[in-house]
Amino acid sequence: MLATQSLSGSPFSPRLISRGGRRLKPRASAMANPTPAVIVGGGRVGRALRDMGGGDDVLIGRGESVPVDFAGPIFVCTRNRDLDAVLDSTPESRWSDLVFFQNGMLDPWFDSKGLVNAGQVLAYFAVSKPGEPPVDGITDTNPDGLTSAYGKWASAVSSRLRSSGLSCKTLEKEPFQKQMLEKLIWICSFMLVGAIHSGVTVGAVEKDYHSQVCALIAELASAAAAEKGVEFEEGMQERLCAYSRAVSHFPTAVKEFEWRNGWFYSLSEKAVARGEEDPCPLHTAWLKELCLV
């Protein structure tokens, strides 16, 4: 599973393989207590993060306020639709300590809230059910793991995960942004192509509709690169197909439209409004076929 704000029932929570096909054991360094944190959200990811701590974390649920006098990171492990409520429950003096574990394109929301350089984590670890140890996510093109952290508390996140035997890279903003966009492109391309073909599995998309999904990946990557002013590393299609082989059994569906495919559609709308060609014609056509726009 890909760790998200809620692992159960989410098409973006696919099972990944662990090193050597086993659950990871905490390393000896786990004896060193990680930096205490406030954890917002009591789902599988929030509880797993608490279990990785040293017993000094504060776990809060929906509607509860973030304590003002607790110094340290605030891990936000909720669904995207709950982010406004989380921000409302957090003293503005603590906003710089927020660390977001959500999938999708959060930049417009960050900008609207004045969250400059907000901390983020791209989490690729599986928690099959509450209380079980997490399983690290690796693919044949990323044998060192995929999880990455950015921002003020990136080192604290990495230390916490590594102390439990999980991988985690700390990245500067530009490389993190590129990795975030690749993850977004994977979700938007494989889920859309799968939905077009009656919700086939991710593996079926990679195997049976390879040319279609690669064409869509190229289209979305070009649009994202132009919008964000980034240059992706060569081999994106291969990397995303390798990831899909690692989660081949998982079903496909287009969900959380506003935070995912909706961002690419907004690029299309803006281009057409300017009298330019749609930068994502395949994407737009398939969204219309599914009556999503």
TrEMBL record:
From the Swiss-Prot or TrEMBL record, give the protein name. Uncharacterized protein
